[in-house]
Amino acid sequence: MQNLISREPFRQPPPELLNLIFERTIPPLSLLEPTLCAASSSTWCQVFKQKQALISVCKAWYDVGIPFLYEHIQIVFMRQLLLLLRTLGSVETDFKRFVTSIKFCCMIPTSYAGKFEKKLKLLFSLCPNVTCLSYLSSCPLPSWSCLRVLPVHITHLNLDYGVSYKALMDTLKIASPYLVSLSFDNPDPPCCIITESYDHVFQLPNLETLLCALPGDRLPMGVDLSQWNMPRIKRLTLHCYGFAEKQVITICRMHGAGLKFLNIVPFCGGFHNLGRVLDLCPALEHIVIHPETKTSFSLGHQYVKWVDIWEPKTYEKTSRAKKWNSLCENFTKGNFPLLQGVRKLSAPLSHLINLPTIFPPGEVLTPVDSYSYNFLGLNIRHDVGKIHGECSRRPVAGYEDEGSIDHEDNTDDDDEWRWGSHPLPRSDTSHLIDWEVSSDEDAVVTMEAKMVGENSN
């Protein structure tokens, strides 16, 4: 008893324990809003401020929290890229080894394409552990050459509709041998390219996950997935912007043999051939059903174990309740002999298209296994047979609501709402991690001059 009294009081958890605590405190990137990332009320911005607060507590928290701050980089304005390069290139820090994913949500002017390519190349050279690149800006990528500098260690690629048909085709020529995960919109090919001889055949020997948007059977296919060679494809998500029955069946006929997961997000008019699709995917284990899915006969599959069913939105519940309940009645042991569980997914979470894989269906089999994410406007609970909650975008107390995204040339005070500052306790390198808010114009000019010099060489 005397020995216990004489011990020093508890001062700080060990780094390993702190790391586990932070992992369970910071929401995973997959649950954060991919859009509105610069808005002060967005979940992404609030999580970023949370990370800044964690590393500002003390030196021990700073050491554990810095990898979380730099793990996922998101560029909203081009000025941030310049300051980030200065920070990562400093000999006084080693933050670059923490970076694993980079996301661009900014406008890149056409006249800036050449410089952007140089900066992107430098960024990749500084960050050898980057495996994921995302271009999710609604503004068009100025030139496909911006992406021709992709290194071989980029295995996860996410491209939104801002990437043109030609840029997508030329990028896949370079990156296809190395990709494990690919997500892209399916842009309509311009007429000038339709008349050209363009090779649509791609070899993707390592691709396991694919998310693609389909324009509909009445529109040009753009990217023809039936011409691709994907021997390892296991997870497929198809987002239909029109009636795409023929396109979906063609894709499943070519690539359905090895699929384990299938999510067909139908057009508002519905999807009628689910039974046919199930027949084309004999190894399927996990399927996702949407309220728009329609079937006039009983569904069945020999190996499906898990079924996720999205609930109708509130304004649809009355009109679609009967059809939706009829659809749910298909998923029984009689029709699916290996069925282990059916989950209902709450409609307010429908913008999280990857929700069924973010929360694996086998995680919660008893009430004891239930868990939830509760962070500011993000409230998601995983119970037996259901995932429910909401992602509120309403402003939260303590965070200003500017109502719109300001221009890039704002002052530091205006930038404060967007990124904030994160002082480093008891350290000499605090100025080097402030790449998000620094207004050191001399540093920007110096970096620009350096880039221009490299271009001229």
Short structural description:
This protein has 457 residues and is of the alpha/beta class. The protein is built from 14 helices and 14 strands.
Protein model, in words:
By secondary structure, the chain is of the alpha/beta class. The protein has a domain of 111 residues. Strands 1-2-3-4-5-6-7-8-9-10-11-14-13-12 form a 14-stranded mixed β-sheet. Strand 13 and strand 14 form a beta hairpin. The chain is globular and about 65 Å long. The C terminus is likely disordered.
Largest sheet: 14 strands, mixed
Beta-strand residue fraction: 5-15%
Helix percent band: 25-40%
Strand order of the largest sheet: 1-2-3-4-5-6-7-8-9-10-11-14-13-12
Count of helices? 14
Could you tell me the radius of gyration in angstroms?
A: 24 Å
Given the helix and strand composition, which structural class is it? alpha/beta
Return residue spans where pLDDT drops below 50 for at least 5 consecutive residues: 192-197, 393-457
Would you count the extended β strands for me? 14
- First and last CA, distance: 73 Å
Shape: globular
Order of helices and strands: HHHHEHEHEEHEHEEHEHEEHEHEEEHH
The overall pLDDT average reads 77
Give descriptors for this structure:
alpha/beta; 14 strands; 14 helices; 14-stranded mixed β-sheet
Write the layout of secondary structure elements.
Layout: H1 2-6, H2 15-25, H3 43-55, H4 59-71, E1 72-75, H5 78-88, E2 101-104, H6 113-126, E3 132-135, E4 156-159, H7 165-175, E5 181-184, H8 191-194, E6 209-214, E7 235-240, H9 245-255, E8 261-265, H10 274-279, E9 286-289, E10 306-310, H11 317-328, E11 341-345, H12 355-358, E12 371-375, E13 378-383, E14 386-391, H13 412-416, H14 441-456
Parallel strand pairs: 1-2, 2-3, 3-4, 4-5, 5-6, 6-7, 7-8, 8-9, 9-10, 10-11, 11-14
Antiparallel strand pairs: 12-13, 13-14
Helix pairs in contact: 2-4, 3-4, 5-6, 5-14
